[in-house]
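Q: Here's a chain of 398 amino acids. Please give me its 3D structure as tokens.
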Amino acid sequence: MKEFLNDIKGDKGIWVAFLLLAVISFLPMYSASTNLAYVLDKGTTSGYFFKHLLILILGFIILYFTHKIPYRYFSGGSVFLMPFAFGLLIYTMTQGTTIAGATAARWITIPIVGISFQTSTFAGVVLMIYVARYFSKIKDKEFDFKHSLIYLWAPVGLILAPILPSNFSTTALLFMTVVLVSILVGYPFKYLLKIFGFALVALTLFIFIGREFSTGLKNKTETWKNRIVNFNKPDPEADYQIEKAKMAIATGGAFGLGAGKSVQKNFLPQSSSDFIFAIIVEEWGMAGGLMVILLYSLLLFRIWVVAKKSTTIFSTLLVIGVGFPLIIQAIVNMMVATNLLPVTGQTLPLLSSGGTSIWMTCLAIGIVLSVSVANAEGDKAQAPSEENPLDVLYEAVD
């Protein structure tokens, strides 16, 4: 055991944040699972508990072995995984999963084991590694719009296009993360404006074609519209989930009702996933909610530190590309639960129930830890002319 613990390396702050979030997740997840077990009559609470335990154990294994891989290997791996991720996304679209007539094909079932796998989360991690690789490869060259259009934005579009019909929020999150990385490396603003123009035209065409020629896509775009309208003009009947989440948070008070004593978990359809933060606040109060926020803040701070200490452009952008989306996703989830954003369907990393989302979160954290290991041991790949892209931003803030 001592040898195993000595073999765990990397940023200790990230390890602490990960382990605390993982341990904390059992209480609200087990409590919220009563909705599925007793209200919807799907399984048992003990079954969900052990399922969550197995998912986290596998997630830890993914994290452990990922953090042992030298981060440079991820660069070349992304080139081979991009076509594979695209193929998985296309295959997922063919599954024909619908909810209320709208496209909702987000998962595929892994043969033999029968485990559901959400391909968009995997594709998102691969995409951000590829983007980091692209910018690191052209670090000594002037930005050429045609070149970036072919080798950067076309692959980005190919990955995002299959995700859009079933998950607009994930598509937007990934796109904005790519834009953030582009800004950090000094990608010309005039080129970004063109990309935004292309993206807006593509989204408009998608909505128009979907509404005119596909009932499923029409229903999906109506859902997007209704979420925005209901957010601006709240309707208790139309926005049932948000009202129940607000009630859960309001009744939580300073220290909550106590573990397992949530009332709204029996009425919130997504109490163990999308709205787990509301259940945490209801049972543990503002103190519990603040603790969760502080843990994500610790994770963000340590990710930033790892990025700042990185000795190559690729490692810096890699940490930002795979690490920052986790924090942004957490912020979005909590803002939805507190009615500061329209409903998006984003889960709370590590705290919400789920398989693929937890595994891909562990994969992303493992990649960040891999970079932190290289930082601690002294990265011999650093070129004398390389500069950390964060230095410019850091100086501007300072």
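Q: Can you summarize the key feature?
A: The chain has 15 helices and four strands.
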